[in-house]
Amino acid sequence: MSSVDYKSIASFLHLAEVEKREVVRITKETPLSIEDAYRVQEELVALKLEQGHRIVGPKMGLTSRAKMKQMNVEEPIYGYIFDYMVVPDGGSIKRQELIHPKVEAEIAFIMGKDIEGPGITGAQVLAATEYVVPALEIIDSRYENFQFTLPDVIADNASSSRVVIGNRPIRPDQLELDLVGVTLFINGEIKDLGAGAAVVGHPANSIAMLANMLARRGEKIKAGDVILTGGITGAAMLSVGDTVLAKADGLGEVSFKVSE
Ligand code: 0L1
Ligand code: MG
């Protein structure tokens, strides 16, 4: 049996988020397996729920081949987005509430039906999806200089921090999501671009993987979940005064500003 104190690591990471303070990665002192890391994440989620926050939906991370190769992993990771993380489209994030935020452009799914793995496919995900929208995810690792191992980032709720969801939902059968081009602009300049296929071949595959990973823990995707499928663009650093915009072909735009 593992001697890792999941609750105290979760409290430590939660406090770092609340106090907007970067901390030394957990595995520098305490070895964590992937299983341990998800146990810490579960405690972190429980702590936030106890404090009255509500889950908006799970999110997938490390879904691009480049990020998986960089972290030497075969499988993406997941975390959870909470209500306090949601910023309205066109709204602002406050730089002083965060540690060292970065932004990436994604496609989010709004689920119409529950999906329970194992064995879920992308086609089943599309059949269970009500709408898709462009999204901007603001990630803010609690670790010094965004430096971590895979178990560290899983324990840290996959760096989840803020999210801006587009407000023009589109039915998923209206377009081929793997071919959708997404461009990330900061202050009117293109920072990065990519296509939906950057996310494990198709964003729906990302949710199928999520359903199958959740099934190992006896959990499922629920109708009403808003799910971030993973970065289509790379993550760009944010500064006070930035205006951030993502344009997704056929899906529209989503934006926010960075205030002090
Ligand atoms: O949403 C993501 O892909 C982020 C996962 C965690 C990795 C990072 O913080 O860069
Ligand atoms: Mg992301």
From TrEMBL:
UniProt keyword annotations, A-Z: Lyase
Fumarylacetoacetase-like C-terminal domain span: 74-258
Superkingdom of source: Bacteria
A Pfam family recorded for this sequence: FAA_hydrolase
SUPFAM superfamilies in alphabetical order: FAH
Record-linked InterPro entries: Fumarylacetoacetase-like_C (IPR011234), Fumarylacetoacetase_C_sf (IPR036663), Hydratase-Decarb/MhpD_sf (IPR050772)
PANTHER family, A to Z: 2-KETO-4-PENTENOATE HYDRATASE, ACID HYDRATASE
Protein name: 2-keto-4-pentenoate hydratase
Gene source species: Effusibacillus consociatus
